[in-house]
Design brief:
Blueprint lengths: L2 E6 L2 H4 L15 E5 L1 E4 L2 E4 L3 E6 L6 E7 L2 E8 L2 E6 L5 E5 L7 E5 L2 E5 L6 E3 L6 E2 L9 E5 L2 E5 L7 E4 L17 E4 L9 E5 L2 E5 L4 E8 L3 E6 L12 E4 L2 E6 L2 E5 L4 E3 L3 H7 L12 E5 L4 E7 L6 E7 L4 E5 L5 E3 L8 E4 L2 E5 L4 E2 L2 E2 L2 E5 L9 E14 L2 E7 L7 E2 L3 E2 L3 E2 L3 E3 L1 E8 L6 E15 L2
Antiparallel strand pairs: 1-43, 2-35, 3-4, 4-43, 5-32, 6-7, 7-8, 8-9, 10-11, 11-12, 12-13, 14-15, 15-16, 16-17, 18-19, 19-20, 20-21, 22-23, 23-24, 24-25, 26-27, 27-28, 28-29, 30-31, 31-32, 33-34, 35-42, 36-40, 36-41, 36-43, 37-38, 37-39, 37-42
């Protein structure tokens, strides 16, 4: 009678993420795959995206707002600004700009935008966008701090930040009758790479240091301080914030911080695999967004050499990593639309939605390391594999006599509760995959039945 050879069922085993660069037997469980998620004690097909809006050009920046109960999406295109009100149509706000990448911020029902080439643009909720004549000639980033509009790297000066008068984003020249002003981050070692709302202030990052700008009142109005967190940002969109935590990417690694303590979240083996794949010379093409529903943070970047564009998703609760095989040129975290939004070319997308990539299939797969079922030096005859699974996918078994050898794959079958390999091998590899439209699946447990055989040489 077949005996139980082994079982993989603990949530901690299933939610360990994909380890592509470690020894075949030292990986926790998964060594290959794409477009999968690790949650609820199982591995499942990740959510894809739904087509949402078609913009009038390639989108390089997104912003969102809720105005009068109507959700809005603002889009930065190389030479224009557009917006879409829920239930309406895409509308031009401004055209004829010098081609560049945008930074955008919302102040009530106003949109503020800068491309670091021309003066600040203001759309006052009607008509066309206006040039703010009193703003600096250029600014790299625009953000809001309470009732102040803050511009970073004003006039091309690294570390120079200026702010508008209280509640008036058209006035930046300081006078005795207003609260406009400016300051320098004195010890900054690079341009301001990124800035995001953080608690009651604005966090900003150089290439290697984090700062916090806060309202202090009095004659100073706003002031900055250098935070203990010695982490930087690789580009203007390389950081996402979830409450009091920020997640970011810089050439030394992926990090998580509250401004005081820092955790480098990618295991050295993960970072050793990913770091050569990221083109840090294209840092402003990196996107990062937080998905509140699925509790994960996702980066997309331009790859080095022939890699092209790719993404990786990080699950903070389990420290699991998983690759994404689609390109994003812009992204914003979950907020008024309930889902993160992204863009690829002219397509604006609702991320973490459905199991397809728009109208196309989203391939998804997961593959185990060579499984010895507790006995690396012995062959195992397996009569039956029992799966705790849901949905529809293909299931394939691979055989090896040596964990570093070539895999001999058996014929793929439709994933079911019971499979009967009726084969012998020293090591077994299990793979689940899907390539068709509308297919969804999950795997939460594997149990092997059979008998131990002779010792391998």
């Amino acid at each position: 009678m077949p005996q139980t050879l082994g079982e993989i069922a603990e949530p901690q085993q299933f939610e360990t993420g994909i380890w592509k660069s470690v020894d075949a037997l030292k990986a926790p469980l998964w060594v290959d795959g794409e477009n999968v998620a690790f949650r609820k004690g199982q591995v499942e097909k990740a959510r894809g995206y739904a087509s949402f809006i078609t913009a009038g050009g390639a989108v390089n920046a997104l912003q969102q707002a809720l105005v009068g109960g109507v959700r809005r999406v603002y889009m930065g295109l190389p030479t224009s600004l557009q917006y879409y009100p829920e239930g309406g149509s895409v509308t031009n706000l401004g055209t004829g700009y010098t081609s560049g990448a945008w930074s955008m911020s919302c102040f009530g029902n106003y949109l503020l935008a800068t491309n670091n080439i021309e003066k600040l643009q203001l759309w006052p909720n009607t008509g066309s966008a206006l040039t703010v004549s009193d703003a600096p000639t250029t600014a790299r980033i625009v953000r809001q701090l309470n009732v102040f509009t803050v511009l970073f790297d004003a006039n091309g000066n690294p570390g120079r930040f200026v702010w508008s008068d209280r509640g008036d984003p058209t006035t930046f020249t300081a006078s005795l009758s207003n609260l406009a002003g400016g300051d320098y981050i004195r010890n900054i070692s690079s341009r301001t790479q990124c800035a995001e709302e953080f608690g009651n202030g604005l966090a900003c990052w150089s290439s290697e240091q984090m700062y916090l700008i806060s309202y202090v009142g009095g004659s100073s109005v706003l002031s900055y301080r250098t935070l203990p967190a010695k982490v930087g940002a690789a580009g203007i969109n390389a950081v996402a914030v979830d409450g009091q935590l920020a997640y970011g990417l810089e050439p030394r690694g992926f990090w998580k911080t509250d401004g005081y303590t820092v955790q480098w979240i990618a295991d050295p083996a993960v970072w050793d695999f990913l770091s050569p794949r990221i083109d840090f010379t294209a840092g402003d093409e990196i996107t990062c967004h937080w998905d509140a529903e699925y509790q994960c943070v996702e980066w997309h970047w331009k790859g080095t050499g022939a890699i092209g564009y790719e993404g990786w998703c990080y699950y903070p609760k389990t420290n699991a990593w998983a690759p994404r095989n689609w390109k994003l040129t812009a992204a914003i975290s979950s907020a008024v639309w309930g889902k993160p939004l992204g863009a690829n070319g002219t397509a604006v997308l609702k991320l973490a939605t459905g199991v397809n990539l728009g109208s196309s299939a989203m391939p998804a797969s997961i593959q185990t390391k060579p499984l010895a079922w507790g006995a690396t030096d012995f062959y195992k005859w397996i009569d039956e594999l029992r799966l705790r699974r849901s949905g529809s996918a293909s299931f394939q078994v691979g055989l090896l006599d040596d964990p570093d050898g070539s895999i001999s794959w058996l014929t793929a079958e439709t994933m079911a509760e019971r499979h009967f390999p009726m084969r012998e091998a020293a090591f077994w590899v299990l793979k689940v995959y899907s390539t068709a439209v509308d297919v969804d699946w999950s795997l939460a447990g594997v149990e092997a039945f059979g008998a131990f055989g002779g010792q391998r040489l």
